[in-house]
Structure formats: structure tokens, C-alpha cells
Specification:
Lipocalin, Immunoglobulin-like, 730 residues, mainly beta, five-stranded antiparallel β-sheet, Neuraminidase
Length: 730
């Protein structure tokens, strides 16, 4: 009977207990309650953010849509004791501090051009169409009925402050010369009136607006005499004139809490604050990413919201304290396993490890950058890094024996223009530097280190000349290095492939070439075989497999209705267990990234996401014994028992392979009559570990089993078709 690996139907993906959640979207305080909208749903805290409870709210499905929508920054609004949630093109209301929500269905259509605001008097919504005037609508009864206030030709952003509705906008394309730096408000008759523009630049627009103690503060891009933005300027208005107060290099987010204004320039390591809208003082934020939301807490505390973290500090920031310690909302970026410890890297949070298979995690970020995106095990230590290096950036080495981080020392150089950690094997780090030789002169250099950066060896002469600048390197299970190189010649695009099996790299060509129509190529290595994926224009994605002994690509696999996503397969984009393949694919219809699985060696593929939260984006696959792990956009997920084998429904017996004696003790004999010469013979144990591989050269094959532990094994023949048989070592 043909045996095909399958999975127990009762299994599904389960999220790690300690690592869960998703990106923070918004946060608001209502009385003694904090509400956090995350990619994973609604959470509530009644202890100033020290602990959070998942609410299983009706808003959860809406937040999944908000996460994928452009421009949804503010979601929560408060009018007296009523909470409003405006996102995903829907309006919801809660009168019990967020415990339950009611959807409001107005008599007009809300689309992505709409905006929302609250004042002491009413709630407001604007509708900005692509053609025709924009409308301002008002509801004084919590959204039950709406009246039209006024119309304008501007596309509006609204801001409610006390009893007044302010708004600003632009006419036409903000990147054209038709800019309009104009602040307006609604008067007592609910008609649009200019708030005044004296002192504001004429040829610009507003990106942020707040009012503090009667003073208005606006953020305005400054073009100077150039066609592009040169800086962002802060303007303050009291009386009738706007006055410039401070310049910032980057656009940011302007917010206020507990009687103080805060401005967060994006992509920087600092924030700025002021108490009166005039004098700005620079302070450091809790981590190396700027915040995007804040909320006032008791005793003058302020809650800072970053993409994946919450921090509290005093109104005049001093010491930052993590407000969600022990309960993270991360995007899991990478996984690595060393002995019995699991290490995970989280985008914007840092590095954590677990000694109980993902039940609890310990933060070991101290001393290492919190923007680490890759992990690897080298010389029984953990390497944490980002592949691309720039001047001043670092990679880090963690020693489990001493529980300390050290910076990875780079080879002595005169500076470099580009750098990257090209590959990491179990015993070696391969480093690329576009190294400075003299003024404006750079050369491509490769270095290897077998002692975690203690010493480096220049191996540039061992790298094929064509691969010096643009070669992509992939590592194998046993120290192999594989190069995929792409370059243009007089005959068009050329793709060449090289392999090194030695500790001191020495590359040999594989002798396999790709069509010039290939758009993207990726490599993975499993159990002595290379899987080479090619993505072609106007053609199905295909996998090619080569036996690592003969280096002969002998089999093609298609991805069916799925498209391959450009994830490094050698870094967790493909897991192979016998004939079962797990990969990250892109649905060809809705283009969502998803996990896909093939149970028949790649002949057919299907989604493999039972139990995932909505819109879960997989980042890395990781195999650990019988468990399959996924680092995803909303946490760490596990699927158990990935190597359970069962007969495929409707399968029929094959007569062209016979195994004897079965059960066996010292050897198993395989009768391969009818099997073509060159077919690949493999033996796996039930955990998926490769025990034997050889190409078929004759009709009889004897495999010694003296060193095999007792148990069940699978013998697999890969030729024109795949045939799998089981046998028992007794």
C-alpha cells in the first residue's frame, strides 16, 4: 500500500501562551480603564497597563480590516462617558467602558475618505468624495440621526477640542502646487469659518494639529526653494498670528496627554515634548523606535504606545517602565533552537528565550539591539543580526553558558559602503563587505570566521568572480554553502549555481542553468537535497530537486494555484518531511500570504492555517522534532505531530517494490525491479530524519540496519513517480 504522510485531523495551530497579540493600533483611557486595539483584537487593562485581558469583542473582526487599511491611525474617540470606535469604514459605540459595542449604521455611506471627531457638543463625520463637495455631518444623539452642517471643496481631516470642531485639508493633489495651508472651524451656526492663516506658509499643508490651554499648534512641511520637503516646522498660534517655534528633520505624530504636548519624529530614536506649545525639549524614548500613541494615566503618568510595546513614565519623562511586561504583543520575526532552549526574535521588542517549549519566555534583549530580524546557531552560541550592515550597525553573539551578549567583531577595514552577513553555518560566519580601498574606490571582499568573529580570513579568491558583488548564499545542514548568482551578459540574464562542501569554502559549479525568463530563484536544503525554486513571468512557480551526491536536478514540482512569496526558503520558507512539504505561499486570488502544504511530494497544494487568527502573516517556518513552528505577524504558533503517517484514502498497492525480511534486524533488502536507473532511494525514521540515501544502480539494494534503533522506518523511491514503503527494525 502506498503510504503518504498526513496529519492528524484533530490537530490545529495553537498560539504560544506567552507570546501573543499583534501590532498596537490605538489606545484610549476611559475612567479607570485602558483599552488597546491590536491587530489581534481588543484588550482591556484596569491596572494602568500592568496586565491585559483579551475581551473577545465584536470589534476583533473589524480590527483585522483596519490593520490592512491605509491611513487608519486614530480609532478610539471619547465623548463624555461614551466611547466611539471608527475604523474599517464602520462606526461603533460603547456605553460600558468598552465591554460591549453596538454598530451604528448611519443613513449615508462611510468609505475610506471619511474622518471622525468628537466635541463636547456632538460627534462629527466628514465624507470626502473623489468628485463633488466634501460634507460635514453632525449627530447630537450618539449617531442615531445626522444633519448636514456644511460642504467644502477641501478633503478634510477633523479635530475636536472642547466645544469646537477644527479641521484642515487641501484642494487637489497635496504634491502639486495647489496646496492650501488653512485651518477652519465650525461656528455657532455650524458653518465653515476660517480660523486664520497669518504667519503660516502659503504653499504648504498641515500634517498635525492640537490645542493646549487655548494655544493651537500645527505641524507644516517646509519646501523652502526646493521641489521636495526640506524639513517639518512647528507653528504655534495664540491671538491671531501663527509663529514658528521649532524645525524637525522628519514628519511625525503630534499628541497631548496630561497637559503636555508630545511630538514623535518618525524613524528616529527620540521624541520631543513641551508644556506650552512654544519651548520644545528633546528626550529619549524607551526603545529605539518612536511612539505613535499616548494616553494619560493616574498620578501624572503617561502611557507611550509603540508598535509592539507599551511604556509608562512621568509627565516629564525620566525612567521608562514596560507597561505590558510578561504579556507581549509582538510580531515574531525568527526562531532558533539550541539544545532544549528556543530563542525568538520579535520585531521592535528584541530577543526572548523559552526553556519550556514556548509556554513561557524570558526577555534577554538587554545589551542587544531590539531590531534584530534573524537568528542562527553557530558554534553552540546564538547569533542575532540583521542581514544588511551599515556603518555603526552591529550583530550580536549570545553565550548560554554566561548569559551575556557580545558584539560580533568585524575584520579590520578602512570603512565599507555596503555589508551583509551572507550566510551562517553551524561552524562558520560568511561576511561580505564592499570595502573602501582608497578615496571613492571600493572592492568586493568576503571573509569567513570559525570563532564567532575572533579572527577573520579573507576568502575572496575562493568566491567565483561573477558572484563577488551579487551572489546569494544559502547554508546546508552539514556546513555546505550554495551560491545562486545572477548577472547580465551579451546573451541576456544568466543564472549560475555553485556548491562548497568543505569547512574552508571551495566552490564548484553545479552545471545547472536557468532560463533568462526566470524572475526570482530561491534555495533550500533538506536531508542532503537542494530544493531550487524558480518564479517565472507568466508561468507557474516550480520547485526543482537535486540529489546532493550527483548534483543532478531530476524532478520538477509546481505550486499549483499558489504563487511563491519571495521568502528565503533556506531561512524558513520551506520545510520537507518525507513527501510532505510545508511552505509560505501567496494565494493567487486574494494575494494573502498563507501557509501551504503538499502531502504528495508537491503534486498538489492546499492551505494549512486551521486555528490561525485572521490575517496572520507567516514570517518563518521552523521544524523542532515532531513540532512545526511558525513565526508570524501576530505571535508564535505551533502545530504538533507533523510526522504522523497514515495510508492515503483510496491508495492501491504497488507491485514493483518488495522489502524483506520485514521486520528485519541486521539489514533490509529492496527488490527494485522496474525502477529506472538513477532513481533516488531514501530511508527516514518516523521523526523525518534522513537515515540513508543512494541512487539506484541495480535491481537489488541491501541496506545495513545494525545501527538503526528499533522502530518503524519509511523507504522512499523517487523516480518518474514517488513510491513509499514502511519496514520495521526489530
Amino acid at each position: 500500500m502506498l503510504l503518504i504522510p498526513t496529519l492528524m485531523l484533530a490537530q490545529q495551530w495553537n498560539r504560544s501562551q506567552a507570546i501573543q497579540g499583534g501590532k498596537f493600533l490605538d489606545v484610549i483611557r476611559n475612567g479607570n480603564t485602558l483599552l488597546a486595539a491590536t491587530q489581534d483584537g481588543l484588550y482591556r487593562s484596569s491596572d494602568e497597563g500592568a496586565s491585559w485581558l483579551k475581551m473577545n469583542s465584536s470589534l476583533d473582526a473589524v480590527m483585522a480590516k483596519v490593520y490592512s487599511s491605509y491611513g487608519q491611525s486614530k480609532l478610539f474617540y471619547l465623548k463624555q462617558d461614551t466611547l466611539y470606535f471608527f475604523g474599517g469604514y464602520e462606526l461603533h459605540r460603547s456605553v460600558d467602558s468598552g465591554a460591549t459595542w453596538t454598530r451604528i449604521t448611519p443613513a449615508f455611506t462611510i468609505d475610506y475618505n471619511a474622518s471622525f471627531a468628537c466635541t463636547d457638543k456632538a460627534i462629527y463625520c466628514t465624507l470626502a468624495s473623489f468628485s463633488g463637495p466634501s460634507e460635514i455631518r453632525r449627530s447630537a444623539d450618539g449617531g442615531a440621526t445626522w444633519t448636514l452642517c456644511d460642504t467644502t471643496s477641501q478633503k478634510l481631516t477633523m479635530y475636536g477640542a472642547g466645544d469646537t470642531l477644527f479641521f484642515w485639508g487641501y484642494s487637489g493633489d497635496i504634491w502639486s502646487s495647489n496646496k492650501m495651508c488653512q485651518v477652519n472651524y465650525l461656528d455657532a451656526a455650524e458653518k465653515i469659518q476660517p480660523y486664520g492663516t497669518t504667519g503660516l506658509p502659503a504653499n504648504s499643508y498641515i500634517t498635525g494639529l492640537e490645542r493646549l490651554n487655548g494655544r493651537m499648534v500645527a505641524v507644516v512641511p517646509d519646501y523652502g526653494s526646493a521641489s521636495s520637503i526640506q524639513r517639518y516646522r512647528m507653528y504655534s498660534r495664540s491671538g491671531q498670528t501663527w509663529s514658528q517655534t521649532m524645525d524637525f528633520k522628519r514628519d511625525g505624530i503630534l499628541l497631548q496627554a496630561n497637559g503636555m504636548l508630545y511630538y514623535a519624529p518618525q524613524l528616529t530614536d527620540s521624541i520631543a515634548y513641551t508644556s506650552d506649545g512654544l519651548v520644545w525639549n528633546k528626550i529619549l524614548v524607551a526603545s529605539k523606535h518612536s511612539f505613535h500613541k499616548i494616553a494619560g494615566l493616574d498620578a501624572g503618568q503617561v502611557l507611550f504606545v509603540e508598535e509592539y510595546g507599551l511604556y509608562t513614565t512621568t509627565s516629564v519623562p525620566g525612567t521608562f517602565t514596560k507597561a505590558n511586561a510578561g504579556f507581549y504583543f509582538p510580531s515574531t520575526a525568527a526562531i532558533a533552537k539550541l539544545n532544549n532552549d528556543m530563542y525568538v526574535a520579535h520585531e521592535s521588542l528584541g530577543v526572548f528565550y523559552s526553556q519550556d517549549n514556548g509556554v513561557t519566555f524570558t526577555d534577554i534583549t538587554a545589551g542587544v539591539s531590539n531590531t534584530v530580524g534573524r537568528l542562527a546557531i553557530c558554534n553552540a552560541q546564538l547569533l542575532a543580526y540583521n542581514q544588511s550592515l551599515y556603518q555603526g550597525s552591529k550583530a550580536f553573539v549570545f553565550s548560554p553558558q554566561t548569559s551575556t551578549w557580545d558584539s560580533l567583531a568585524l575584520p579590520a577595514n578602512n570603512g565599507y559602503q555596503q555589508g551583509r552577513i551572507a550566510a551562517v553555518t553551524s561552524s562558520m560566519i560568511l561576511l561580505y563587505l564592499k570595502e573602501k580601498i582608497s578615496t571613492n574606490v571600493y572592492a568586493d571582499r568576503y571573509y569567513s570566521s570559525t570563532d564567532l568573529g575572533g579572527t577573520w580570513k579573507d576568502i575572496t579568491p575562493q568566491i567565483p568572480a561573477n558572484a563577488l558583488a551579487y551572489g546569494e548564499f544559502f547554508s546546508g545542514d552539514n556546513g555546505e554553502l550554495f551560491i545562486r548568482n545572477e548577472f547580465w551578459s551579451s546573451n541576456g540574464k544568466v543564472q549560475e549555481f555553485y556548491l562548497s562542501r568543505t569547512a574552508d569554502p571551495a566552490f564548484s559549479p553545479l552545471g545547472f542553468s536557468m532560463s533568462k525568463d526566470v524572475w526570482y530563484t530561491n534555495v533550500s536544503y533538506h536531508n542532503g537535497e537542494f530544493f531550487l525554486l524558480k518564479n517565472m513571468h507568466n508561468a507557474p512557480d516550480s520547485l526543482y530537486i537535486t540529489n546532493s551526491d550527483s548534483l543532478k536536478f531530476f524532478r520538477q514540482i509546481t505550486y499549483g494555484s499558489f504563487k511563491f512569496y519571495n521568502k528565503q526558503m533556506g531561512e524558513g520558507g520551506l520545510i520537507v518531511t518525507g513527501d510532505t512539504f510545508y511552505s509560505i505561499g501567496m494565494d493567487s486570488v486574494d494575494l494573502d500570504l498563507t501557509l501551504i502544504r503538499s502531502l504528495d511530494g508537491g503534486a498538489s497544494w492546499h492551505r494549512f492555517t486551521d486555528g490561525f487568527a485572521p490575517r496572520t502573516t507567516p514570517n518563518q517556518l521552523f521544524r523542532d522534532g515532531s513540532d512545526l513552528w511558525v513565526a508570524a505577524s501576530n505571535g508564535l504558533w505551533k502545530y504538533g505531530t507533523v510526522s504522523t503517517y497514515a495510508p492515503a484514502p483510496g491508495s492501491t498497492a504497488k507491485q514493483d517494490i518488495r522489502l524483506y525480511p520485514n521486520p528485519c534486524r541486521h539489514y533490509i533488502q529492496a527488490d527494485l525491479e522496474g525502477i529506472s536507473e538513477g532513481a533516488l532511494i531514501r530511508v527516514y525514521d518516523m521523526s523525518g530524519r534522513l537515515m540513508f540515501r543512494q541512487e539506484a544502480a541495480q535491481q537489488q539494494l541491501r541496506i545495513d540496519t545494525d545501527q538503526y534503533p528499533k522502530g518503524m522506518y519509511l523507504l522512499q523511491v523517487i523516480g518518474a513517480e514517488i513510491i513509499t514503503r514502511k519496514f520495521i527494525v526489530d
